[in-house]
């Protein structure tokens, strides 16, 4: 008879609950110290399955992250940060504009803020969906104390993460995976 830990590990493997793409060349973490990137404290690493979080809000509707991610496109979650720094939105403007303008045909862009009323300047909102995270469940689950972003693949795995949010590092990643933008 197979010992219990081995049976559980085998069952997880059969059900594909142990998948991790950390070693995949298309799952990337911005390197700490490289071009201003900081080490993300906590949160899932690139290659891990994106964990769910709730409650989230779009307009007057409450939903979970998994409900939000039901798409054939990648999802770019741009976090304003749980520390409520007013200048955080300035840092999100360039990555949001890049993703919307050059990769909007492949990527849904979401601005995740503590409240939909704190959604930043109108230019940032154009082409993006504002997500309220009133209990900071998503911010905390993703270690997003400061402005940062996660790019989540359509299969629910994290393709790329970065802190602070940086448009040039995002562009470099997207060009490497998708080629030039404006599809």
Please, could you describe this protein's structure?
By secondary structure, the protein is an alpha/beta fold. The protein has a single domain (21-178), classed as Glutaredoxin, CATH 3.40.30.10. The protein has six helices and eight strands; from the N terminus they run H-E-E-E-H-E-H-E-H-E-H-E-E-H. The protein has helices at residues 4-14, 65-68, 88-103, 122-125, 137-141, 167-178; strands spanning 28-29, 56-58, 61-63, 74-79, 107-113, 129-132, 148-152, 158-162. Strands 1-8-7-4-5-6 form a six-stranded mixed beta sheet, with helices on one face. Helix 3 (88-103) runs parallel beside helix 6.
Summarize the structure.
The termini are far apart. It is built from 6 helices and 8 strands. With 183 residues, the chain is of the alpha/beta class.
Uncertain ranges: none
Distance between the termini: 55 Å
CATH architecture: 3-Layer(aba) Sandwich
- Give helix % range: 25-40%
Features:
single chain, alpha/beta, Glutaredoxin, six-stranded mixed β-sheet, 6 helices, globular
Fold topology:
Layout: H1 4-14, E1 28-29, E2 56-58, E3 61-63, H2 65-68, E4 74-79, H3 88-103, E5 107-113, H4 122-125, E6 129-132, H5 137-141, E7 148-152, E8 158-162, H6 167-178
Parallel strand pairs: 1-8, 4-5, 5-6
Antiparallel strand pairs: 2-3, 4-7, 7-8
Helix pairs in contact: 3-6
């Amino acid at each position: 008879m197979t010992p219990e830990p081995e049976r559980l590990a085998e069952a997880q493997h059969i059900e594909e609950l142990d998948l991790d793409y950390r070693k995949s060349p298309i799952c990337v973490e911005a390197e700490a110290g490289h071009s201003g990137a900081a080490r993300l404290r906590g949160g899932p690493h690139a290659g891990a399955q994106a964990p769910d979080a709730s409650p989230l809000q779009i307009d007057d509707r409450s939903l979970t992250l998994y409900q939000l991610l039901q798409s054939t496109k990648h999802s770019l979650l741009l976090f304003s940060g749980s520390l409520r720094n007013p200048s955080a939105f300035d840092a999100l403007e360039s990555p949001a504009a890049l993703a919307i303008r050059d990769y909007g045909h492949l990527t849904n862009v979401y601005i995740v803020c503590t409240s939909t009323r704190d959604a930043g300047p109108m230019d940032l909102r154009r082409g993006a969906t504002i997500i309220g995270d009133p209990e900071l469940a998503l911010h905390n689950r993703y270690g997003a104390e400061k402005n940062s972003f996660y790019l989540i693949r359509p299969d629910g795995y994290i393709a790329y993460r970065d802190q602070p949010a940086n448009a040039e590092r995002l562009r470099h990643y997207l060009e490497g995976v998708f080629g030039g933008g404006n599809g």
